[in-house]
């Protein structure tokens, strides 16, 4: 899968803050994110980069998603967070959040589903790394609960929470985060609350401010998603040529633009040609290594490395382990 989705450094910064006793380099290993990047508020990273940092965190603590989600307050979402806070009612705010998943940065298809007097806030259609599915759903649903509490200015009473995966050995911590009955091996990932809350007025509602900020969110979403579509096209084009990468100049020619223009556009999106090439090679290498069908020398050749040793060195730089250690 070619990752075209871009996101902010919010989650990465939270991981580093949560593991403040650990060296940042350990948590950033294999992500392509440097410590210096963390000081730039406008830095954009790919979902793949974010997930690598999260994988490093999960390797240290399997239940870390529950803690990270608890720290994702509505203020973490920039303009969208402000638009949600100034909405007239709780239901208006939730529907606005669902309208702009790119600004929310979610990896799930979020929905509000009516079930009699209950509303289920559901997270489905997860398409990222299956090994991080449980972490991501814990992170997602806990952060959604925190957003709800922030909007209301008080805890949203939940009626039930349910999860598709089996109960983990730290299941008692779920009760701490959701404060309601929790069911595992269910049909979906969701939590339920009384439908009457949708009409609850928000304490920070402001019609004039909301209208202005919501319009800025609409424009930001249009620009952001447009950039993602363009970046997805560029990644897809480069992804078909990994065996003989065209270089910045060659790729620019294929895109009918100058190398300078391509370099500028990539820089505006927080990446470079080499970073994009490395990420695509890394993703393809992990796929082929996990399938365990091609020898390592053949994988190196297919990814455009002139020598197997060069591929091994690059893979260690990306992942922290040798290709042979990555195989099942």
TrEMBL record:
Gene Ontology MF annotations: DNA-binding transcription factor activity; transcription cis-regulatory region binding
Record GO cellular component, one term: cytosol
UniProt domain HTH araC/xylS-type: residue ranges: 232-328
Keyword flag Transcription: yes
Superkingdom, natural source: Bacteria
SUPFAM superfamilies linked: Homeodomain-like
Record carries keyword Transcription regulation: yes
InterPro entries (UniProt xref): AraC-type_N, Homeodomain-like_sf, HTH_AraC
Keyword tags: DNA-binding, Transcription, Transcription regulation
The protein's name in its UniProt record: AraC family transcriptional regulator
